[in-house]
Amino acid sequence: MRVLFAGTPEVALPVLHSLLDSPEHEVVGVLTRADARKGRGRTLHPSPVAAAARAAGLDVRTPRTLRDEETQDWARGLDADVAVVVAYGRLVPAELLDVPRHGWLNLHFSLLPRWRGAAPVQRAVIAGDDVTGACVFELEEGLDTGPVLARMEEQIRPEDTSGDLLDRLARAGGPLVLDVLSALHAGTAAAEPQADEGVTLAPMLATADGEVVWTAPTAVIDRLVRGVTPAPGARTVYDEARFRLGPVTPVDGVTDLAPGEIRASKHEVLVGTGDGAVRLGQVAPAGKSWMPADAWARGAHPDPGARLGLDTSDAAATTTGEEA
To answer: Which family does it belong to (predicted)?
Structure first.
């Protein structure tokens, strides 16, 4: 089949590589986001998909919108059988949805209709879901509302960060998409409408969403930190300066620390929560690189009773991260 591929970040690469490696399919064009400025020098860098597609000699386009006439004429001229979308980051206008013969297929990293939106994996981890997965569905004008052609489930492990989970789902997505394309070619694909019940939304996370509220229960803090790792990242405050956090470990039997209170020993750093304590892993104080928490404590020498966070006594403790 002739395939138009649309994607931007690294998680889209497994599907792109699966399509390129498949003798049954030909990638005839690639849509991705424009080069972005990164680093201290603010130099332009291509998206991971753009770099891989250009290396493969593909026709790559980076329009700011799919509504412009030039881009739409290009898409029509590709004579594509199907378009495959993985984390593209641009809306597909209604006038393009019927351009490929089999429409636009989106690989979405959740078990739809749960977690429709831009951050399904992060929201699933934060909410404490036991199972998530991936779906291939037909794009339509609604937000992730189209009928589902295939789905697979993936267990969320107790130590999973959103980055860990997304990596596994992305790698599983390649075979899932190829199975759907084979079914479409054979005329055996069956799209199943999404249920009206069980809909939850997964809006994009902002930097502020990674702020740890130390009065929250240990389980909520653990899930939040893992859910925002690697992006937008977990953070708190120490000595009135930003203090970034890697994944933490819940600790049983520690009940004498106030929320945010630090207890540092030679080999570990514990911090009190609303109902117990967590052990810090990697930390990054303001202006410094990541380091083990015990190494930070040996240099910082936090005073007895020192705390992480803002005014934890006034902070809300009920945030679960679940969106309705």
So the answer is: Belongs to the Fmt family.
